[in-house]
Amino acid sequence: MSLNFLIAIPRFGRRVDAQYVFPMGLAYIGGSLKAAGHRVAYVNLNHCQDEIDAAVESKLAEFTPDVFCTGGLSVHYEYIKEVYDAVTSAAPEVVTVLGGGFFSSEPELVMRDFGADYGVISEGEETMLELARAIEAGSRPEDIEAIDGLVYWQGEECKRTKARTAIEDLDALPWPDYEGIDLEKYFAVQQEKTNARYMSVVNNPRYFAVVSSRSCPYACTFCYHPIGRKYRERSLDDLFAEIDYLLNHYEVNILGVLDELFAVKRERLIEFCERIKPYDVHWIVQIRVDLVDRELLQLMKDSGCYAISYGLESHDDGVLSSMKKYITAEGIDRALELTYEAKIGLQGNFIFGDPAETLDSAKNTLRWWSRHPQYSINIFLVQIYPGTPIYMDALETGKVPDRLEFLKEGCPPINITKMPDEDFVEMERLVRDYGRLSGVFGSFISKESHPAPQDPSTTLFDVAMQCPHCGDDVHYRDLSATMYDAVFNVPKGQVACQSCKLRFYVSKQDILEHPPEITALYEQAIEKQRSGDLRDAYKDFIQTYVDSGRQHADAIYRSSRLARAFGWEEKHASQLTRAVRLRCNVLEWKREWAELLDRQGDTFGAELVRNELEVIEAMPFANKGEGSIALQHRPRSTSSKSRQPGPPSPSTTP
User: Fold this and answer.
1) What is the arithmetic mean of pLDDT over 632-640?
2) How many CB atoms lie within 10 A of CB 313?
3) What pLDDT, in 10s, does the model give residues 447-459?
């Protein structure tokens, strides 16, 4: 006998076909159930154009499930609840099972809120197979109670069985159910809404991830391990068999290793590099800063590694110690410098608000961050996930008065430091205001459009940029209109150089054609300004900008200059800040912004802006846009190096 399982993948956002992380956990569950002979169907709401209720009803019309499964992370709580309610409303008789990090971290709380029949804590493959056998046998109490890692109801009481032992032999697990979840739709979303900083190293990216190990041997205070704390590795033989399958069946050309920590031993990483090199595929991995050295980084680079994600978190040794990172600021400096030198892209975050954080420690990290814009480090407030040590502390101190409401709100930032609230608010302001502004920009060369070979009614785009790190011309080819918009037609897009692999930012203001009516009216306004007729000059210019309906940073900046000339300091300040927040990469604008911040009394903010300016001005290829308010496109270089064509487009179309 076999059961019908419906696995629902929540819509991980409000937009259909937005980019999302492949639901590896649910795919592993589906693969295990199929291997045991059960029938498995999926409803992936990330690709359903219908409303959630309609999408669920449509799936239920073609597939009648015995058991319904769903899950996700704590930040997806409301999205998971939406699809759960839709299924149980349309099919109230179905047996319901929850799993994933959002459940494992708060099992009883979630069970009561959802009203599910069962919940799976930690790894789910073995638990689900045992639960399936128990359901087939009639869900006898003695069978249910014998399943480790399960939460279930006994009358009105929510019961939890013994914790399940971690799965030791990961090679024995079936691979994720790729076919069931329909990878082609997933690849199409990448093409249309690509995360360019990861995928722009090749034209027509087909990125997919594998998992080579489970959990992490470290215990960072902000991190929750939904599948337990015991670190286990797959054999590289089994991993490369899966890689072979993905490359041969799905033409994957970018590989992500999705482990929490890829390797704790140098030897495993070296062997992986030696085995992956003949594949000639780009790959990305997450490792610790204390694992790398110059020799290892060069080996990784030579074998196709184009980006490394480091767990940085802070540049203050006291905060790093509080987080139990077991790394130092000096170690971070060394790893980032060597990685940048090796021309491997960097991914890393600083997260502010650890219990040991002070306003001074936060400012020290921000100072260092502002002096290293070439690394493109992101800055955020720490997110307090249920199940983490800092979450448990927040519960004890009353910082989270309502656990369920905290989940429903998406785990919002809260002050768990010893800072007074006014200092925490100031830190939050600094992270918010300046985190969106830093970065090294490439220089725009050209944008061209052409009809798609297979569909002349579809327009494709080619964009050429100069990399600010190595100076090479980079050609991003055959971009669909939506992919072009997602990468280049945003205030601040991030891409990777296809030559040196380092990342840089693209300003929308460079790519946009400068509205000629704004240029003309600005020139007229300048003439009126000289004659003293400032009010009409400002009015005419602003009205034309508003009528054009464009969020054009250059126009906003010019209007701020006119406002200042008229003596409207407040309007000048707000418009200049808005222009800079639209990621204007012209350094002249930022110099003026630093002066404005000084006048407003934000001397620390002015210091951050000037730190970045100093670094960018010293970079020979960075887009500085000096000496002119108008947009300046760099003419196409005539050097032999720059004239080399970019990589050809693949012969196959995803």
Assistant:
1) 38
2) 24
3) 999 998 888 998 9
What are phi and psi for residue 152, nearest 5 degrees?
-150, 175
- The CA distance from 555 to 518, in Å, is 7
pLDDT in tens, 245-261: 999 999 999 999 989 88
Residues 8, 84: Cα–Cα separation, whole Å: 8
Are 408 and 77 in contact by the 8 Å Cβ rule? The answer is yes
> What pLDDT shows up at residue 637?
40
Measured in degrees and rounded to the nearest 5, phi and psi for residue 546 equal -65, -45
- Burial tier of 312 (Cβ tally within 10 Å: 0-12, 13-18, 19+): buried
Q: Round to whole Å and give the CA distance between 117 and 151.
A: 8
The position carrying tokens 């604008």 is 589
Query: How would you list the strands of the sheet with 95-99, edge to edge?
Result: 39-44, 4-9, 67-71, 95-99, 118-120, 150-154, 157-160
Dist. CA 381–CA 644, nearest whole Å: 43
Q: Closest Cα partner for 323 from 377, 365, 291?
A: 365
Closest to 503 (Cα-Cα) out of 336, 376, 377: 376
Of residues 109 and 264, more confidently modeled:
109
The tokens for 175 are 């691979």
Average pLDDT value for the chain: 87
Choose among 563, 625, 616: nearest CA to 588: 625
Name the residue type at position 454: Q
What pLDDT shows up at residue 647? 30
Q: Which two tokens stand for residue 28?
A: 């592993």
**Is 343:501 a contact under the CB 8 Å cutoff?**
yes
Element (H, E) at 109: helix 107-114
Q: Can you spell out the DSSP letters for 467-502?
A: -TTT--EEEEEEE-HHHHHHHTSSTEEEEE-TTT--
Tens of pLDDT, residue by residue over 279-322, are 999 999 999 999 999 999 999 999 999 999 999 999 999 999 99
Residue type (1 letter), 73: L
140 burial level (CB within 10 Å; 0-12, 13-18, 19+) = exposed
CA distances from 521 to 542, 548, 572 (A): 9, 12, 18
Is residue 317 within 8 A of residue 354, CB to CB? The reply is no
CA gap 376, 374 in Å, rounded: 6
Beta pairing class for 39-44 and 4-9: parallel
Sheet with 282-287, edge to edge strand ranges: 207-210, 254-257, 282-287, 305-313, 345-352, 378-381
Its pTM stands at 0.88
pLDDT tens by residue, 515-539: 666 667 667 666 766 666 666 666 6
CA 453 to the chain's CA centroid: 32
DSSP 130-158: HHHHHHHTT--HHHHHTSTTEEEEETTEE
Question: Measured between alpha carbons, how far is 125 from 36 in angstroms, rounded to an integer?
Answer: 11
Q: Which residue has the tokens 């100093």?
A: 614
Q: What is the DSSP string of 278-293?
A: GG--EEEEEE-TTT--
